[in-house]
């Protein structure tokens, strides 16, 4: 048993967020009956919506209650057992595993529960807002590091809990008219890809788009000062007093100005983001007789006014298969809103892949087609089937190969300043790009870094943009060769913040154009050519050598260590972690 637990080797706590602000967090669950309906509720939609808010906060004083925020939510044992079962363990073994004393229960986030919201130093006196959609096997907690990093840079981040059967388990609280219950995962195979598979994913996306639209309606009401019932009392086992937090967001969120909300997601969540933006932006063009729509917003739905060409779009390791549903050809044939009339022409579109997904050619082609300007062919590529060869733990595209050693592991390249908390705290004011002041007119787009922006992070797996790479670094390295999980998320966050900054949204820190520069040479940060001209430029011998240099990721000493050598026999924990690649 000791060897089993040592094989997990999880961290004790998450690293500090990169940004000048302390981060607060609150869990929210709201009855649907208390909100305006943005559309008809889809089949199997739940009576509540749930999300976690990450936000810039005032650091609690010594005499104030500062409860730890655990990574594994309550009820912890049931959550761990459900996740183990989701990964393929028999129910009895999964249940027994959850009773083993383990460090997972105690891992905490560098955030403050129910802390006081910091007064925004922005020109309009409001914090910018970002919505984040999780992938398969995810939840509102599975991307805490990247959501917390965004909040530390001056954003209110809404991390959705999708009750569509894509999570290992979801708890739905009782309302005035419905009983508490549990939403269990829906089994949809990755292959073979049949009409039933596409229909299953379409059904999940319908629920997801409705949930995001409902959450947006909730934020509008909260910002306007309406009294919203939060079913999550945010109490602890020892302290039973209820904490009311939502009132402090009144008049604090920049959600009424069209194009000021950022939309982001990982894997299935990135595909969700694409379908949301297209479904809302083009809804007037879709036939009323089309019964296969993912969402048909009501004319007074608040989200209609928000999604415009200026809306920042951040796609992390997008899984392309759901976008190829035959029923959604209408959406596939249309570009992202960014390419609409008068839009920024892709400057506010960011796509960041893991090296594993960059190696997955069929899925890569879909990512390129989605991010590309409309001039690129919109024909679907080969369906990206996720399968493994017999005798191999990982599919071919996920078998990473280590390159030459390097010692640099800083937050930015050696030529760039670091956006650490210490370096940024001096002024505690947001600093938008010189070319993108929140009060400037559309001329600002002329100084933006030309987009779309597409990169991958060297020596990374699909799970590296979630918390799992940080929580299990030893397993990630030993089983999948994924390295430097903290740096991976730092690079992702830098790019996300800069795209938001260049969209004219005020965030913390100084201009960071280097991160979007395809020739910056930042270690492990590799540009992906989208069109044929970029392909020709990066295919030159000198360019290939430069890319190879960027991919150097670790020291010779660490690679030669006996503890890091792979072995045929793996612990149960290692096998479970390896499967995260296919489920997130």
UniProtKB/TrEMBL annotation:
**What EC number(s) does its UniProt record assign?**
3.1.1.47
Q: Which UniProt keywords apply?
A: Hydrolase, Lipid degradation, Lipid metabolism
Region entry Disordered: which residue ranges?
A: 406-451
Among InterPro entries, the record links this protein to: AB_hydrolase_fold, PAF_acetylhydro_eukaryote
User: Composition bias, kind Low complexity: at what positions?
Assistant: 406-418, 426-440
* The protein, known as: Putative phospholipase
Q: Molecular function terms in GO for this entry?
A: 1-alkyl-2-acetylglycerophosphocholine esterase activity
Q: Which reaction does it catalyse?
A: a 1-O-alkyl-2-acetyl-sn-glycero-3-phosphocholine + H2O = a 1-O-alkyl-sn-glycero-3-phosphocholine + acetate + H(+)
Q: Does the keyword Cell inner membrane apply?
A: no
The text of the family note is:
Belongs to the serine esterase family.
- Gene Ontology BP terms: lipid catabolic process
- What is one Pfam family matched by this protein? PAF-AH_p_II
């Amino acid at each position: 048993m000791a060897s089993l637990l040592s094989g997990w080797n999880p961290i004790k706590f998450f690293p500090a967020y990169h940004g000048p602000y302390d981060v607060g967090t609150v869990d929210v669950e709201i009855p649907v009956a208390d909100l305006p309906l943005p559309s008809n509720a889809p089949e199997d939609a739940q009576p509540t919506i749930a999300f976690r808010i990450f936000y810039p906060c005032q650091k609690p004083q010594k005499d104030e209650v500062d409860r730890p925020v655990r990574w594994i939510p309550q009820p912890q044992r049931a959550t761990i057992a459900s996740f183990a079962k989701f990964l393929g363990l028999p129910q009895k073994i999964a249940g027994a595993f959850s009773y083993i004393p383990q460090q997972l229960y105690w891992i905490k986030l560098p955030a403050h529960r129910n802390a006081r919201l910091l007064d925004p130093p922005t020109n309009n006196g409001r914090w910018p807002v970002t919505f984040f959609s999780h992938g398969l096997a995810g939840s509102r907690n599975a991307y805490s590091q990247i959501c917390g990093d965004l909040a530390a840079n001056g954003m209110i981040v809404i991390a959705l809990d999708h009750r569509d059967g894509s999570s290992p388990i979801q708890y739905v609280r009782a309302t005035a008219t419905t009983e508490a219950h549990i939403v269990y995962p829906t089994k949809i195979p990755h292959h073979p890809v049949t009409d039933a598979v596409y229909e299953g994913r379409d059904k999940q996306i319908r629920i997801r788009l409705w949930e995001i639209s409902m959450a947006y309606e909730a934020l509008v009401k909260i910002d306007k000062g309406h009294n919203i019932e939060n079913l999550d009392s945010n109490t602890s086992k020892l302290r039973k007093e209820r904490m009311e937090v939502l009132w402090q967001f009144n008049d604090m969120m920049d959600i009424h100005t069209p194009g000021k909300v950022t939309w982001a997601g990982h894997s299935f969540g990135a595909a969700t983001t694409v379908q949301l933006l297209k479904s809302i932006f083009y809804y007037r063009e879709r036939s009323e007789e089309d019964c296969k729509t993912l969402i048909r917003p009501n004319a007074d739905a608040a989200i209609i006014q928000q999604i415009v060409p200026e809306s920042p779009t951040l796609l992390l390791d997008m899984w392309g298969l759901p976008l190829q549903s035959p029923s959604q050809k209408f959406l596939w044939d249309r570009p992202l809103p960014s390419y609409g009339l008068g839009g920024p022409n892709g400057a506010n579109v960011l796509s960041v892949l893991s090296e594993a997904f960059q190696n997955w050619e069929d899925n890569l082609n879909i990512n390129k087609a989605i991010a590309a300007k409309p001039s690129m062919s919109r024909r679907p590529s080969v369906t990206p089937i996720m399968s493994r060869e017999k005798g191999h733990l990982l599919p071919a595209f996920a078998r990473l190969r280590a390159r030459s050693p390097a010692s640099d592991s800083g937050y930015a390249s050696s030529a760039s300043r670091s956006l650490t908390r210490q370096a940024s705290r001096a002024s505690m004011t947001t600093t938008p790009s010189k070319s993108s002041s929140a009060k400037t007119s559309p001329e600002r787009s002329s100084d933006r870094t030309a987009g779309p922006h597409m990169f991958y992070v060297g020596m990374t797996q699909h799970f590296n943009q979630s918390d799992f790479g940080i929580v299990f670094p030893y397993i990630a390295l030993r089983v999948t060769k994924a390295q430097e999980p903290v740096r991976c998320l730092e690079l992702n966050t830098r790019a996300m913040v800069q795209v938001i900054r260049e969209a004219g949204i005020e965030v913390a820190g100084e201009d960071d154009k280097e991160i979007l520069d395809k020739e910056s040479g930042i270690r492990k940060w590799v540009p992906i050519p989208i069109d044929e001209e970029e392909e020709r430029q990066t295919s030159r011998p000198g360019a290939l050598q430069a890319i190879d240099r960027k991919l150097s990721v670790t020291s010779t000493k660490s690679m030669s260590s006996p503890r890091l050598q792979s072995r045929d026999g793996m612990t149960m924990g290692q096998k479970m972690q390896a499967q995260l690649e296919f489920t997130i």
